[in-house]
Amino acid sequence: MTATSTPKPPTALLPRLPDELVASATFLLKRLGFTAKEQTMKAYEQTGLHPYHHGILTVLGERSRETQGAIADALGYDRGQLVGLLDELEERGLVERRRDPNDRRRHLVRLTADGRQMLRRLRALSAQIEDEFLSPLSDEERADLHALLYRLAEKHDPRCGPIAAAGSQV
Questions:
Q1: Residue (of 24, 5, 44, 12) closest to 135 by Cα position
Q2: pLDDT digits over 100-157, tens only?
Q3: E-state strands within 17-126
Q4: DSSP H helix total and E strand total for the chain
Q5: Domain interval for residue 66
Q6: Burial classification of residue 100, based on how many CB atoms lie within 10 Å of its CB (0-12 exposed, 13-18 middle, 19 or more buried)
Q7: What is the CATH number of the domain that holds 77?
Q8: Is 109 part of any domain?
Q9: Total domain count for the chain?
Q10: DSSP E strand stretches across the chain
């Protein structure tokens, strides 16, 4: 068992869920989502950070400098919650905030060198968590699962889809 695995009681000791629930794809997605979140949270505890921090660092890793509002919008985070998360990242020296010279009401956020290093570490951790979670599936099944989940995500969360053409509505 690895550090990110959560010990589970033997299946013989657990009562079986009703067939009606197990037959529901959305029920299984919810259950698996809870399990994935639990395993992820436990693994991230070792870094002193949270998956929400990882999301922020990832946005900054792709886009270099962003306003606080743009980060919140990109990730679907509450703007008030984002400020607290950025405070935590700034205290650890992983991000730096500066006033936007074009609009003094806004702050621009960027990764520091330590932030880039932590992002690499969190990417590796995330890949390990995903690999362990999907271990019962072959590489082809993993690709198929991702393709199906991506199609659903494009439909239900436009932020997961391709970038809209300039002037088009999302």
A1: 5
A2: 888 888 889 999 999 999 999 999 999 999 999 999 999 999 999 999 999 999 999 8
A3: 65-67, 95-100, 103-111
A4: 7, 3
A5: 51-115
A6: middle
A7: 1.10.10.10
A8: yes
A9: 1
A10: 65-67, 95-100, 103-111
